[in-house]
Backbone:
């Protein structure tokens, strides 16, 4: 498959805002791609603005001077992929120059529109957040599969790419191969938000109100002796959490998949600050010493499979009965049940549980409909989180050099929310809430992602997600969405999130209009 073809479709998909037209364009594209299914994973990654190699760490300088463009397109997606793999592998002394030379060769083989597209891919500018959803529909239309079956396979596979390849290769029957497999992670179910416990309970009806623990989401798979632990982005962190492996190995079943949270606790059981847990899960170095100094504990809140039985489609209440049979109470999330939201006594119990959970130092509660299945990969309408502080996960688009005490540091962050087309819309700026350690960290991280610097504002690749607390959303003609955040302050960076998991402009607008 020609790279030029991907560039063309990407541009056309980005240009139309109609979802049905996007789907049509992608369906045509997949029909044409059918003879070479092995190219589909690379093409899909490019269309969504991802690189299969992940971040390549290519600085602006390496992209500034570009070779003369080729007259005719000849690059294949596989050739581009191979070249970028090679760029990523260059290390050691002279790596900068080596990378630059390889990039020059690649750009020299590309036509002008291909160069532009490559540059967009390398700088993160062609990121298309809504692409995966449209691609699922397009794939279904191209191959005659049911969209719901494709979506389920994607959740079970943890990504669209392998499903696309199998579908294009073998047709709809290939989807049966994507069952929940112990040892292979699936996308976790996510929660929507509600403003109060009462609102959540009224929206859901019969429900459970569970404590919301402020740690790191984990999906734990055990198959006999073999235990594997995955984060919400499906990164395998087993080697970093030996104490969790030990706990899971002692549970009384051979094969299962559990969903939960790990966190560091004080001697009296109160949660330690989130950064400490994140530091443990994020660090590969000297795991044994780190685990001894700051052990983390698992708290499980769901079970997706036990002894060969797939529980995803069972209602919460039944999954929880299985959870209780497998996991002792001290390793299980605490919660209360509400059978009838109209019952005042029950509503008071739920409110009291929320207050008691906050008093124990936790973040809030997650209210879950007891009749609902596990909607892997979805921001389910059947799980609603309730927190006392409003927070948003936003993407850093640019940053200003600091003054005075902050001279030489990158300080004032330009914050963006995700738009429908995968671009980011600036909602405001903040330099509040930053500790000295965070300032140092962000200066280094943001410089590594710089694409331009005019001496005042450094524009960066939109890759870092930061959690912002704010007091409200107010109208402001100064920002493109016509609104900005009141008293925005940095709580922490969310390295466990990617930009396409950031909050959307739409959700911020809903807060603004009280929707
Ligand atoms: N009892 C619980 N049930 C489900 N999730 C929980 C629970 N306790 C803590 N969590 C955590 O809460 C997360 C959802 O709420 P949070 O406000 O952290 O959202 P987020 O991580 O910013 O984004 P997202 O909603 O995308 O997960 C889950 O991913 C999980 O890590």
Residues:
């Amino acid at each position: 498959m020609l790279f030029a073809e991907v560039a063309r479709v990407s541009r056309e998909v980005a240009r139309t805002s109609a979802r049905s037209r996007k789907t049509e364009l992608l369906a045509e594209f997949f029909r044409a791609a059918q003879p070479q299914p092995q190219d589909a994973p690379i093409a899909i990654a490019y269309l969504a603005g991802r690189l299969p190699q992940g971040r390549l760490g290519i600085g602006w300088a390496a992209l500034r001077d570009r070779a003369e463009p080729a007259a005719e397109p000849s690059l294949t997606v596989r050739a581009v992929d191979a070249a970028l793999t090679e760029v990523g592998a260059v290390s050691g002394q002279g790596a900068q120059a080596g990378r630059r030379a390889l990039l020059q060769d690649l750009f020299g083989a590309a036509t002008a529109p291909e160069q532009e597209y490559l540059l967009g891919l390398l700088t993160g500018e062609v990121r298309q957040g809504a692409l995966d959803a449209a691609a699922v529909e397009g794939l279904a239309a191209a191959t005659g599969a049911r969209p719901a079956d494709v979506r389920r396979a994607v959740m079970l596979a943890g990504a669209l790419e392998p499903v696309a390849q199998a579908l294009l290769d073998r047709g709809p029957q290939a989807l049966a191969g994507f069952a929940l497999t112990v040892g292979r992670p699936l996308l976790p179910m996510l929660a929507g938000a509600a403003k109060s416990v009462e609102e959540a309970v009224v929206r859901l009806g019969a429900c459970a109100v569970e404590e919301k623990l402020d740690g790191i989401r984990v999906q734990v798979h055990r198959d006999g002796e073999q235990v594997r632990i995955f984060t919400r982005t499906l990164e395998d962190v087993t080697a970093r959490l030996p104490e969790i492996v030990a706990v899971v190995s002692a549970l009384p079943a051979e094969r299962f998949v559990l969903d939960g949270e790990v966190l560091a606790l004080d001697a009296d059981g109160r949660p330690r600050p989130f950064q400490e847990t994140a530091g443990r899960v994020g660090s590969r170095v000297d795991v044994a010493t780190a685990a001894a100094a700051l052990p983390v504990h698992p708290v499980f809140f769901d079970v997706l499979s036990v002894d060969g039985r797939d529980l995803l489609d069972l209602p919460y209440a039944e999954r929880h009965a299985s959870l209780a049979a497998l996991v002792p109470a001290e390793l299980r999330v605490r919660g209360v049940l509400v059978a009838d939201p109209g019952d005042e006594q029950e509503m008071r119990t739920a409110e009291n549980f929320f207050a008691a959970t906050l008093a124990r130092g936790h973040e809030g509660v997650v209210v879950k409909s007891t009749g609902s299945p596990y909607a892997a990969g979805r921001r389910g309408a059947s799980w609603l989180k309730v927190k006392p502080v409003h927070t948003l996960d936003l993407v850093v688009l640019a940053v200003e050099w600091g003054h005075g005490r902050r001279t030489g540091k990158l300080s004032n962050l330009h914050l963006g929310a995700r738009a429908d087309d995968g671009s980011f819309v600036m909602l405001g700026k903040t330099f509040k809430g930053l500790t000295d350690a965070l300032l140092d960290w962000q200066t280094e991280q943001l410089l590594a992602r710089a694409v331009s610097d005019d001496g005042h504002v450094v524009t960066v690749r939109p890759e870092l997600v930061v959690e912002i607390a704010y007091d409200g959303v107010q109208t402001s003609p100064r920002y493109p969405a016509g609104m900005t955040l009141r008293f925005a302050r940095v709580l922490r960076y969310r390295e466990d999130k990617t930009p396409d998991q950031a909050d959307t402009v739409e959700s911020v607008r809903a807060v603004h209009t009280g929707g």
Q: What stands out?
A: Residues 59 and 448 are 7 Å apart (CA to CA). The mean pLDDT is 92. The longest helix spans residues 344-359.
